[in-house]
Amino acid sequence: MNAPTLRQLELLLTLISSDGIASGGAKLGMSASATSHALRTLEETLGAELIDRNASGVRLTSTGEQILPHVRDVFSSLQLVQANALAGAELKTGQLRLGSFGASATTKVLPALMERFRSKYPGVDVIVTEKPDELTTQDIIERRLELGVVTLPKPDFDTQTLAIDELVAVLPCDHHLAKLDVVPLKAMTFDSFIMTRAGSKSLVTKLFSRNNLNPRVMYELLQLMSILELVSQGKGISMLAKLALPEHYPGVVFKPLSPGASRRFGLACLNEKKLSLAARAFWQETRRFQDERKALERIETRRAK
Q: ∠ CA(21), CA(25), CA(26), 5° rounding?
């Protein structure tokens, strides 16, 4: 029996996260006709239909659902082969790709971990790719990444908590709320509000919704610096994750909220026992780093008492 090609299996993985067969193939640089031909050939090779043509969007048949975990395992194994080959003896060479859900992780947490890892494994290149949390999570599920920093909890993953972040009010320096030590959440609903479209958006919207409040959203912006610049110009107020923010920004102040909201985020993988050499080394260094940090915090706490 002919075996399916890696290209055909890659197409199947891409289709399940797409809104149509043609658009799924386009993600791989395939034309609509080439996509249709590759899918039909895969189904003929396996002797079963994998995509339900009668469903809206892209939906797997029961056979497709059954083989999907095995298809993912194929690419997971291939990733291990490639990573281990690149890693070389004692991890003298290689490459590790890390996912990150946003600025809180990319700028405040990962640099220390990466510096520690690179000092021990200078020949391993660490490449960070930043995407929204749901896309980073999907990249791990679909084996495009072995490791990623994502918001927690993620019950289907192996995880290590890295930090707890909290929302803060972002205000012009001359705003009347800037004089307060803690800003009441309700007071954030009276001015023009600049809503982030980045990783903390869901946390912001849930906080308002949980307290039966609605902000007067006038802007929805993806870029952190754009939000800070508009706030500094007095165009509105905002709410952002504290760890994503710089220490200072001209014309802007950051204040705690009451009630507030926080989130945990951490390093995640599908199975820590099946990581490549480079990914396993990073996972272990992260654990040691966290253990050492906690030990120092306990010592400082005892000294303070």
A: 115
CA distance 162 to 176: 35
Distances (CA, A) of 294 to 41, 97, 161: 55, 27, 12
Asked if residue 137 lies in contact with residue 265, where contact means CB atoms within 8 angstroms, the answer is no
Report if residue 76 sits inside a domain.
Answer: no
> d(Cα 284, Cα 240) in Å, to the nearest integer?
31
Amino acid at 127: I
Please tell me the pTM assigned to this model: 0.69
Distance CA 269, CA 254 (A): 33
> End of a domain among 71, 94, 117?
71
Q: For residue range 78-117, what is the model confidence (pLDDT) as tens digits?
A: 877 766 665 555 677 788 999 999 888 999 999 999 999 9
3-class DSSP assignment, residue 64: helix
Instruction: Check residue 212 and give its pLDDT.
Output: 97
| SS3 of residue 25 by DSSP | helix
- Assess whether 275 and 134 both reside in one domain: yes
Closest CA to 286 of 91, 106, 153, 109: 109
**CATH classification of the domain holding 183:** 3.40.190.290
3-state DSSP assignment of residue 150: strand
**Residue spans of the chain under pLDDT 70:** 1, 82-90
